[in-house]
């Protein structure tokens, strides 16, 4: 652990003894609840001990299918992976099909990346929302104006509402778009397709017509036919 990371870790544990502080991959992460966000962020910005003047980034993580693997990647047959893989995520199912998921998890986490110019330090905040059906966290736009488009993007792609944002509307998707495309239960093929209708002489929107499919990953494994051969020979084979 670097000196700067160690100092920041100790300071956070001292000032916020009730919050979870962790150091992973040389980065400090502070985990807190939505109701604590504004008070903690104001201290992090205004206190000379921290002085996190800039919000570098804000994003959302959807943990709905976290740790679930649709492929057995430890065993292969002579012909590679089977294409008959059972869908283990709602995003692979056809629109309208219900998915019997496991017990409710802490699904949405809003992640903030802060920078202190004064101390040359970075900090990561992780805020898990309480209501998975209606995810809401306070907006930090009054603390860091750069949060404006970040929060709009997170609302558009994940459906997280930022309470107090003055203009929370979609940023990347089309007008009238239904759903939030970065959620794990959003179909990979989408819900609607668009085409130009020569008879109506305009663009029309229709329910998606293609069938969902499970993608087959590339398999890299030892091939005895090329064992002990020169790499240049193998490349030209």
CATH class: Alpha Beta
Radius of gyration: 24 Å
Q: Tell me roughly what share of residues is in helical segments.
A: 10-25%
- Domain count: the total is 1
- DSSP strand count: 9
Q: Oligomeric form of this entry?
A: single chain
The gross shape turns out to be extended
* CATH H-level homologous superfamily name: NADH:ubiquinone oxidoreductase Nqo5 subunit
Mean pLDDT: 83
Instruction: Supply the helix-strand structural class.
Output: alpha/beta
Q: β content, as a range?
A: 15-25%
Provide a count of the helices. Answer: 4
CATH fold-level topology: Beta Polymerase, domain 2
The strands making up the biggest β-sheet line up spatially as 1-2-5-4-3
By CATH, the architecture is named 2-Layer Sandwich
Give the SSE order as H and E letters.
HEEHEEEEHEEEH
Which regions contain 5 or more consecutive residues with pLDDT less than 50?
A: none
Main beta sheet, described? 5 strands, mixed
Distance N to C terminus = 48 Å
Q: Which helices and strands, and how do they pair?
A:
Layout (H helix, E strand, L loop, with lengths): L2 H13 L4 E5 L2 E6 L4 H10 L7 E9 L45 E9 L4 E8 L7 E3 L8 H12 L2 E3 L28 E6 L4 E6 L23 H6 L1
């Amino acid at each position: 652990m670097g000196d700067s990371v160690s100092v920041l870790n100790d300071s956070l544990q001292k000032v916020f003894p009730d919050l979870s502080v962790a150091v992973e991959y040389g980065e400090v992460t502070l985990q807190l609840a939505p109701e604590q966000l504004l008070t903690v962020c104001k201290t992090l910005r205004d206190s000379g001990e921290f002085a996190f003047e800039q919000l570098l980034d804000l994003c959302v993580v959807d943990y709905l299918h976290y740790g679930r693997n649709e492929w057995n990647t430890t065993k292969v047959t002579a012909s590679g992976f089977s294409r008959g893989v059972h869908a283990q995520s709602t995003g692979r199912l056809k629109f309208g099909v219900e998915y019997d998921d496991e017990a409710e998890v802490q699904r949405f986490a809003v992640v903030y990346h802060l920078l202190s110019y004064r101390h040359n330090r970075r900090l990561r905040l992780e805020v898990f929302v309480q209501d998975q059906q209606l995810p809401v966290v306070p907006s930090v736009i009054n603390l860091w104006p750069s949060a404006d488009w970040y929060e709009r993007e997170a609302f558009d792609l994940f459906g997280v509402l930022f309470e107090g944002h003055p203009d929370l509307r979609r940023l990347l998707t089309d007008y009238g778009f239904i759903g939030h495309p970065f959620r794990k239960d959003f179909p990979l093929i989408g819900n609607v397709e668009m085409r130009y209708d020569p008879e109506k002489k305009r663009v029309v929107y229709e329910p998606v017509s293609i069938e969902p499919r499970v993608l087959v990953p590339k398999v890299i494994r030892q091939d005895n036919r090329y064992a002990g051969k020169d790499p240049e020979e193998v490349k030209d084979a």
